[in-house]
Amino acid sequence: MSDISDTSGKTKDDKNKAQPKTVVALGYDPEKDKAPRILASGRGHVAEQILAIAKQHQLPIREDPILAEALSQVDLNQVVPAELYAVVAEVFAFVYRLKQKKTDS
Question: Which domains does the chain have, with CATH numbers?
Fold first, then answer.
């Protein structure tokens, strides 16, 4: 079973000029993966495309600019670093709760 979540957020520089949005898509297949992995990552226009695809497929989206920035440093298809496990676990708990709400409705 695969769970996919998008983590997105905007960052600002010292002059409060808006930086391009950063988006990271996560996936986890417990039968294949030892930890969640980075499925897609991008900034600006690419980030908007990733979000559009996620919305088209009705994937859960959680905004977390700090986590998005940290995860954007990880290469595609690589597992999330151990130091981010706890925060990423919160994202997957968020996804699980959303799925539960849908099945309960």
Answer: 3-104 (3.40.1690.10)
